[in-house]
Amino acid sequence: xxxxxxxxxEAFVRVANSRVNKILTMIYxxxxxxxxVTYDYNExxxxxxxxxxxxxxxxxxxxFESPQRGLFKLVxxxxxxxxxxxxxxxxxxxx
Length: 95
Known about the structure:
With 95 residues, this protein is mainly α. The protein contains 2 helices and no strands. The chain starts with 7 loop residues before the first helix and ends in a 30-residue tail after the last helix.
């Protein structure tokens, strides 16, 4: 039997399902640390954990919302565009 080549969307769905389920499993496992019978922790430590998790989620979401942001280009963009201060003149010199 010949397998058809997987489309980019099919690959996305397959990998996303796997990765999200792994992350949810790890979050469930992290929640077990809340058991005061087994673990001792303070509010500052809990806040550090959730700050790190929220920051990671925010970074991930930004990648989905704007995957092309901030690309480096050697030519000057039209007004309002990003060029990160790097321009190359016609003679090849950095301006």
